[in-house]
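re: that chain from earlier
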Amino acid sequence: MKKKRRQPGKPGKRAGRTPQRPERGQTRGHRPGGRQSSAGPVRLPPGCPPPVLRFVDAHIVVVDKPAGLTTMRHPEEAAEFGQRAQRFLPPTLADLLPALLVSQGKASGTLRIIPVHRLDKETSGLVVFARTPAAASHLGEQFRQHTTERRYAALVRGQARNGRIESLLVRDRGDGRRGSGTGKDGQRAVTHVRVVEQFRDFALVECRLETGRTHQVRIHLGEAQTPLCGERLYDRPPHGAPLPDGSKAKRPLLHAAFLGLQHPATSKRLTWESPLPADMRDLLQRLRKAERGEA
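^ sequence. v structure.
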């Protein structure tokens, strides 16, 4: 049988696409779920600054996450889209980390990044990843036992108060939002609030987590009538109107400013601090000027 000759200039069925260099702003990612992978190009979301490595060794990675970047792919989302379709989704911090490690000489070849906790997409600050299953297990146990130390800086509306907030958090407080309630499905949540700086209609507070529930700080501050500047979900009572917000913040102004944990291999206690991001610094500067009567 005579073989069909391929026409010049046309690729055969097995021919691949011509390799291209990654464009500026691209980096390379990993497969979600902590599996090993070689890199593939991943693009930072528009306007999102790159994450910053704060600590790296053979066991853990501590990163300063910018606002606007999801920590990791939710398992349900990953299952729904499948491995191949996930490349069309916005990248996560876990996707971007391998290339960041390679670019700074912290790793090479196939990489393994294992998420052990998460920050909300619009929350900035410190987050830790494991690099081995043993480290992931050790860190996970610390988070479950609440032996890690986490402090958040928050810019809020209203007159803040020092105190301890404890409640049971439920999936639906009655208006479709997460919040405090009663029932067997409620999860105990404890937040310690300390006022750092009070202004006329706003305040800078520090929130220390005794537990780490979904949206815990946002919910507790909102229910205390001091919702975050830029908060659009937990800024109102059930079935009530949103509280006024003159901050013009484009996101909930919450920043994971302090992280303390026991190193999974050495047992040494390690701590990190992260400075406030630009949007929080800018609002603080405006508030301080207003307090002094400056334009």
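Residues 25-145 form a domain with the Alpha-Beta Plaits fold (CATH 3.30.70).
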